[in-house]
Amino acid sequence: MTKHDTPRRGGGKALANWGPAILFAVILPFVTYGMLTDHGVSQVKALLLISLWPAVETLLHLAIRRRVDEFGMMMLILMLLGALSATAYNTTELVFLKDSAITGLLGLSFLGSLLLRRPLMFYLGRKFGTDGTPEGLAHWNGLWEFPGFRRTQYLLTTVWGLGFLAEAAIRAVLTYTLPTDAMVLVNNVLPLVVVAALVTWTTRVAKAGRARSAAAQAAAAEASATPATAGGSAA
């Protein structure tokens, strides 16, 4: 392995993680909206049709991985709720507000999970922070015994919940500020920007937590070794 292998692999992993999201959440909806409206489809119907692309991505992911997790199920339920309520939309503003409402509901779900036995970020961390093997899952579940780990999960869940609520509020305001064509792009790009910012912050928090844990373990090991050394010297 050369010193250039790690950055290349990191870039490939980032492309694998973000590529499908950008394709299904930004590129395909934006292109499809233009094609539909150019062929006479109303703006409302076009917006409802392009909202199916993220659902297609989710279903493809579930079909390929052949595994359903808590977060994937929650997202599917939110998408189904949005689809079932689609008949009530007769203006483009209502369609965009529907997306804001779903994001706000997601934020409330995060905050509401703070009252449960384990907050939602614990399950998200288990999904993305382990290799999915029984050993990896067991190790992650065992971390809940440590107070510092629990505090971190509650902090992450709170910030993610507030972040989604802020995004929902911003999109609701922009709905009545921007023209429809511009809002189509903003409505699909803004969620990715918010998630990317939250993921970046979460990664930094996780690294800081691991550093504190390693320092604490080193200090404990040094403390336990010191009496033994002193005893040996005295002898």
TrEMBL record:
Query: Which organism was this protein described from?
Result: Streptomyces mashuensis
Taxonomy of the source species: Bacteria, Bacillati, Actinomycetota, Actinomycetes, Kitasatosporales
**Transmembrane residue ranges:** 15-34, 71-89, 95-116, 154-176, 182-202
The protein's name is Intracellular septation protein A
Q: From which residue to which does the signal peptide run?
A: none
The record's keywords, sorted A to Z, are: Membrane, Transmembrane, Transmembrane helix
